[in-house]
Design goal:
The structure holds 2 protein chains of 2 kinds.
Chain A lengths: L3 H12 L5 H12 L2 H25 L11 H4 L5 H13 L3 H23 L17 E6 L5 E6 L4 E2 L5
Antiparallel strand pairs in A: 1-2, 2-3
Helix pairs in contact in A: 1-2, 1-3
Chain B lengths: L2 H9 L3 H23 L2 H18 L9 H20 L21 H15 L4 H11 L5 H8 L3 H18 L1 H4 L4
The chains are: A mainly alpha, B mainly alpha.
């Protein structure tokens, strides 16, 4: 026999008629022999009954027939703008999948145009095959393929850097 | 006449067909709205608003979905809008004191007291929870139908319904507690 904790989680769907037949039978079987779950069930049913009673008290003598008095004027035919709106919507409705595709394509194009601007292009690689200088030359080759070339002139020392 | 035919005629702008279509629903719509606003005049006015809105937008209704869930959706949305507009107006009732006497309401006086107690405590529920609670307990919609009306998931319906029930059960303890 399932325990109360397990059954308690099924009591609301039970009173709402949302359980599968086998679950329903399981709850009904348990409730028969469990006073605690019976009380839970009674409370749920009582709550429903009281709420329905309270709403019914406000509905029972409501002048519902009066709803339609003066409604003819208020139920005016839609305005021209509303007619155009609905006509347009009705025409476009079958094209809705195409509309989604069109939006997707537009977003893709927008992305392609903006992406290269956001990401700067990589610096072109420069390959130094030979160096000619009247002064001294010193080359440093780093591990990350970065090469630094120094030119030392007679009159003044200048430093150059090349990638 | 079949509902489908009435809908098609109403979509062509026939007011008589629209009225014939609405009459079977007017009591249900009114009771839902009454439960949302707890005022007869406001509920009547809102019911009219629902019908006007339904009439104006019925051309957009697709037969693929069920008509009454479509109508309930309009009603719930209007009731929620109505409540939002009323938020600045501090006439929302406060929480009622617990009833002085326990037990079930056997007399009309107790019934009246209970109804007032329910009205006041319903006002404390979040509007979405209140709508789900009414759609289930008063209108008898299934969880799936409620999810369609509210535009939310099944799990959300179940959790909000549970929350509303718990809140109301606690508030109405003397009325709903079974006798040992």
């Amino acid at each position: 026999m399932p325990d109360c904790k397990h059954i308690a989680s099924m009591l609301e769907p039970y009173v709402d008629g949302e359980l599968r037949p086998e679950e329903r039978a399981s709850v009904a079987g348990h409730v028969k022999g469990c006073r605690r779950c019976q009380r839970e069930l009674e409370e749920l049913n009582a709550l429903r009954g009281h709420l329905r009673g309270a709403v019914e008290a406000g509905v029972v003598d409501a002048p519902l027939a009066g709803i339609w008095e003066g409604m003819a004027e208020r139920l005016e035919a839609p305005t021209v703008m509303e007619r155009i709106w609905w006509a347009g919507k009705s025409l476009l409705y079958p094209l809705r999948p195409l509309k989604v595709l069109a939006w997707g394509a537009a977003l893709a194009v927008l992305f392609l145009f903006t992406y290269p601007r956001v990401t700067p292009p990589p610096t072109p690689r420069v390959v130094v095959e030979s160096v000619e200088s009247e002064g001294s030359v010193m080359i440093f080759q780093g591990e990350d393929e970065l090469a630094i070339v120094w030119f030392f002139e007679e009159e003044e020392r200048k430093e150059g850097m090349m990638r | 006449m079949e509902e489908r035919e009435l809908i098609e005629r109403a979509q062509r702008g026939e007011k008589d067909a629209f009225q014939d279509l609405m009459v079977p629903y007017q009591r249900k719509i009114y009771s839902l709205l009454y439960g949302m606003v707890w005022d007869r005049e406001d509920a009547l006015e809102l019911t009219q608003e629902v019908f006007i809105k339904a009439y104006r937008s019925i051309r957009g209704f697709r037969m693929a979905s069920s008509f009454y869930t479509w109508l309930y959706r309009i009603a719930v949305n209007l009731a929620l809008d109505f409540r939002r507009k009323r938020i600045s107006n501090p006439e929302t009732p406060g929480v009622a004191d617990p009833p002085s006497s326990g037990g079930r309401p056997d007399s009309s006086l107790l019934r009246k007291e209970l109804n007032e107690h329910i009205r006041m405590n319903m006002a404390t529920l979040p509007p979405q929870h209140r709508a789900i609670f009414l759609l289930r307990e008063v209108e008898g919609l299934t969880y799936k139908e409620i999810a369609r009306v509210m535009g939310c998931r099944l799990g959300t319906v179940m959790s909000r319904l549970h929350y509303a029930r718990e809140g109301m059960r606690q508030a109405l303890t003397p009325y709903v507690k079974g006798e040992d």
